[in-house]
Amino acid sequence: MSAPGVQSFTQQGWDQVLTKVKRALVYLDASCAESLHWGCGSTRLLEAVGGPACHLREFEPEAVGGGAQQPKAVFVLSSLLKGRTVEILRNIICRSHFQYCVVVTAVNHAVHLTANHVSAAAAAELEGQQPVFEQLEEKLCEWMGNMNYTAEVLHIPLLLAPAAPHLALTPAFASLFPLLPQDVHLLNSARLDKRRLGSLGEVDASALPPELLLQIRCLVSGLSSLCEHLGVREECFAVGPFSRIIAADLANYAPAKNRRKTSAGRASVVFVDRTLDLAGAVGHHGDNLVEKIISVLPQLPGHNSDVMVNMVELTALQNEEENQSMVAPGCLAQSSDMAAKALWEALLNTKHKEAVMEVRRHLVEAASRENLPIKMSMGRVTPGQLMSYIQLFKNNLKALVNHCGLLQLGLATVQTLKHPQTAKWDNFLAFERLLLQSIGESAMSGVLHQLLPLIKPSSQRTSDDYSPEELLILLIYIYSVTGESTEDKALAATEEKVKRALAQVFCEESKLSPLLQKITVISDLEFLFCTNHHLAQNSIFGQERFFFLVKM
């Protein structure tokens, strides 16, 4: 086992899962699949499963059950074993022929006690016992149809998806977003008999909805397990009101209190609200190749942090449509390819120009090791040059297998450099710099006036113009860097013009993108009847200032 860290923490968790999966049907939810994807790869899981009749399956309501020749199932889940999750479990098991079921949850039993409304005092008396898991084990046997069958329920903290040795993601909490000022009104509406909250600074855990509090507790459970693996007692710091709540919950979490009594090491944990850097999240200031790859390539289905890399260029099939449907996409995660992992870490930690040169160097070295007829060229690295190196591996099965991970990263680089959105990146950066200059020299109304000519309906837009989504990104950027503005008539009038212009753009779109539908909460059918732009404007923006659309 390597030195304690985020990667060894994840690998240790998956090692425990792998001991349970031999000749089993394995059902994973999306978050655990993402942890597996970055942590050790599906190949290791498939090797541990073994047997031609065993498969990996997605944990979802319509998942196929197990047949008579598949008596064992392992469910690997990131969520609480409660509510909808248990319903799906029951439905899958009841339509299967399982005789042995293992359910792995990433959530500590202590959180399950909280979810079942067990008081802190009663939970303390149950230390060392796991009644929630034991009750579910009985239910599993009941659903399998025989109380003598075998059922196990256990906790393994599969919290992280380690993208690099010092960078880990938490896919199960990708949607956990800090509270916004207007959420105070919603919290107050549920506190009719309690003191009214004046601001986010007054919000504590007792004011949160139970579902949100449980989600925070699940995160805290995983973080406490990570600290236990690292052997540290943590000191928590928070920047932002929502982070303060999470930090306080970790400090008061009972298992964490017990762990801190015996931990030898020390660590500082800093929680930062994501809303404090919206300008950084939507800006195009980054000179990093990975940031551009993730921005322009299509998302890998079911994943929050990886993309699809088109691998068709490395195949010998001539029919493009057939090729597209037969060739699985590549990705960025290369858990078992050491050369690709080294390149990936270099891409994360270097600037764009150096990163592209690293890709070229790795491709040249790989081609040389395979004795491929490479033609060296110096000077600026171009997508065509990189593609010529990658094409050397085509039709060479041995070389493809040996360097598959490296070729995926190489193709991701080429496809990003050639993507139209990459050229637009520089346009975004130039306009953002112009806006920053304007913000420092003129009033907010003047800044918005610069944006107005860029808001064009689909009939007037070219490929170089900003799409509705990109316009919203610019608006978020503007309001994030300016902060609260003093209300005046000129600003109100300009904001009204921007609202009307955006409403017209939205109404003239032939089809709203999924993002716009989510933000506007208006279906395509509603837009079909929204011929009155004033009506559309009210429907889209309501009575709130439009820059708060980011909340959605």
TrEMBL record:
Annotated protein name in UniProt: Sec1 family domain-containing protein 2 isoform X2
InterPro entries: Sec1-like
Domain of life: Eukaryota
GO biological process, one term: vesicle-mediated transport
Source organism of the structure: Phyllostomus discolor (pale spear-nosed bat)
